[in-house]
Amino acid sequence: MTALTHSPMPAQVGLLAARAIKGTLRNPAQMVFPIVFPLVLLAVNAAGLDAATDLPGFPADSYLDFALAIPFMQGALFAALNGGQDLARDIEGGFLDRLAMTPLSGAALLAGQLGGALFMGLISAVLYLAVGVAFGVGIAAGAGGALVLLLLSLAISSAFACLGTFVALRGGTGEAVQGFFPLFFVLLFLSSAFFPRDLIEHEWFRTIATYNPVSYMVEGIRSLVISGWDGQALAQAFAIALIAIVGFLALSARALRTRLVRT
Amino acid sequence: MTHERAIDVAGLVREFKGGVRAVDGIDLHVAAGEIYGFLGPNGAGKSTTVKVLTTLLPPSGGRATVAGFDVAREGAKVRASIGVALQDVALDPMLTGREHMRLQGGLQGIPRAERARRGAELLDRVGLSDAADRRSKTYSGGMKRRLDLALALLHNPRILFLDEPTTGLDVQSRTALWDEVERLARQEGTTVFLTTQYLEEADVLADRVGIIDRGTIVAEGTPAELKAQVAKPTVEFTPRDAGQCSIAAAALAPFGEPVAARRDGSIAVRLESGADQLADIVRALDHAKIAVAHLALHEPTLDDVFLAKTGRSLEGAADGGTAEEIAPPRRDRVAA
Amino acid sequence: MTAAGTVARTRSVALSVAWRSVHNAFHNPAILLPSVLFPLFFFMAFAGGLSSVQNVPEFDYRSGYTSFQFAFICIQSAAFGGVFTGFAIAGDFEFGFARRLLLAAPNRSGIVAGYMIGAMVRWMFVLAVVFSAALISGMRIDGSLGHLLALLVLALVVSATSTLWAAGIAMRLRTMQAGPVMQMPIFILLFLAPVYVPLHLVAGWVHDVAQLNPFTALLETARGFIAGEPTKVALSAVCLVAMFTLVVGWARGGLHSAERAG
Ligand SMILES: Nc1ncnc2c1ncn2[C@@H]1O[C@H](COP(=O)(O)OP(=O)(O)OP(=O)(O)O)[C@@H](O)[C@H]1O
Ligand SMILES: [Mg+2]
Q1: Which atom of ligand 1 is nearest to the CA of C262?
Q2: I need a labelling partner for A137 at 20 to 30 A (CA). Which of A7, A232, B251, C226 fits?
Q3: ipTM surpassing 0.90, yes or no?
Q4: Is C171 at the interface with chain B, CB within 8 A?
Q5: How far apart are CA A27 and CA B228, in angstroms?
């Protein structure tokens, strides 16, 4: 703790992130489900919906190529959930109060907390990419595209992690974060993640998917896999992720201030 | 059908995984209509005994019948005859008091028409009428215990098992519960098997007491018998004239050996053959022309019994009068 | 006690336990909402978002994609309803309430039967909600009332089966933490069946696995009833009877384990 008080801000962030990452690594069971579950779902969906690639206008030859973007999104969701729950645990267990006694800046606290979530997001993203390639998915945008894909999925993980952080700070309990989780999934399922938007038959569904920002995040990742360099798709995806990061970070900072004042 | 013996236990053993013999070969008999107090410190095996007798746990050895039915082989018949309030209340936080009664009525197969009436009557008897329509999660600890008791009584069981029923109750609720247990036993002839850590409770309430320690019964009998067995009453006597002390001591010598007195200027004697000798003592003192300022008879307590049987004190060592009562701290003893 | 008396008492116990299960669900949104919203949401996402897949030439189901998915949601919600009840059973054992039931019931199988009935009643409420949503969204039903009743019976048996499966685990482990152990196998069985398209359109290894999965037959039969073209009814019946028999034994073992542990 004393080391922390005299350190400059980057060191503070490093210490807190290291703590978050260690917490994650120390409980490997916590990592298995979030990483395996999306892969199982991918396998099942790839087999179940492969027939859809026969539809005229379907943008990929294999549903696996098309759906590879989904695990990245789910990995980001789980990272956000875990990060949010860790933070909620700190709040419930009083660790946050202890940190509040130190001259630690709020920004460092948030960045450190996010570090843990991002670490997990990155690990799972690399894994999904490797599994995809191993099962014959070609990255249309090439090796550089794969790098951008990891970068984009990191940005998306950050966006959701900021949301998770905000929920944890506002709600202050693990249940509040857990209760939010289904909403993340609703956002994913009511997007263009499982079907190309222009092939969705039902008008109401297409409308929801069009207004759902998750659609654009998925489409950004997908464009790198199935169509190569698509400037517009990438720009939209990065823009939405960045807006979400900035917005939720600002909200989190405010929530953190009230929480530190209140407690 | 009436049974001479409501509960009959012979060589009962219950061993848990890992070799803990929580009940290690106990024998006990409870007559119909009797209140039996099962007394023992934490971890003695009281709750385990209750669970075996109420068919919640199968015995690992020995035999036990309740209401004439074997607990291991005739569980259903045993359950139909007994009411049970366990140490940890078994309530559903989502149900109200009234809904609990309704559920219990159904579980016990009480005719539908009778359920509501009996439920309301019992809620009233345990003083929960006002809270009857609130969820049990809003009840205080004492209210939960009282609801648990009411549920145990719903089907008019002939034998009632109460595992530490007064733990956590305030003085008033405790006295009310004692009255209710007495009423059930005396007026309705219910047999009551009651475990307790409180000496006073066993002493006041129980017709007979069994003292269990580390899975075995170390003493059994009526409270008076038990006390008489181990510790004889002492008589303590203060002469009006302090100079008469030695004469008085000589006069009392035939009745028993002298012991340390509690008051200054007094002499105390442990009576060899019990309190019956009191009249003779008075006569002897009169005969020696000794004027009495104060005469007291000290009955032994159940704690003296426990101490004599186990070498340890049941209650906090601080209460003890003699040095030997300061028991070595026990692993499983929790400060009351 | 006479034999008839025992039967009456066991029934009374079962009905009381079922009453509590239903009562608690309807008085506690935290229990009821997930069990209604999850199926409703899956139905919405699948029937709404994936319907184009029925335009694939070999997609040969005549009643439309909404019906195709309704049949799946029917089975899925029945199976998951049983698992949700399993969570509740585990909680009852973990927090001691189950002792009240164990102490009162002359025949303790009645307790398990009660949980099972409760799960079925709760599921029927879920079904009513999803069915209404399906009708509103224009589901086509080509089967007769008889076919629909047959579908109802099929799903009810699925609900009972999954309840007994989950109860067997709940009574062995007696902690709410056992939740994933109840849920995972059911989840895997359900999704290694033809969820999105008919079996012959499922690709790769999932196709091979799905061919051996009893839920494949159940799904095909359920879809057949809605289309008015009963399919593989005998096979499904055999699967159901076999699975039900297995889980009865499984649940009985669980009950014994709980009885031994007190
Ligand atoms: N399920 C179990 N598994 C293993 N050991 C157990 C189990 N239940 C009880 N025991 C052990 O058996 C012994 C007797 O426990 P029991 O609950 O019968 O004591 P008790 O006399 O009721 O104590 P208390 O006054 O604390 O309620 C203890 O050592 C306890 O640890
Ligand atoms: Mg006890």
Answers
A1: 1
A2: A232
A3: no
A4: no
A5: 62
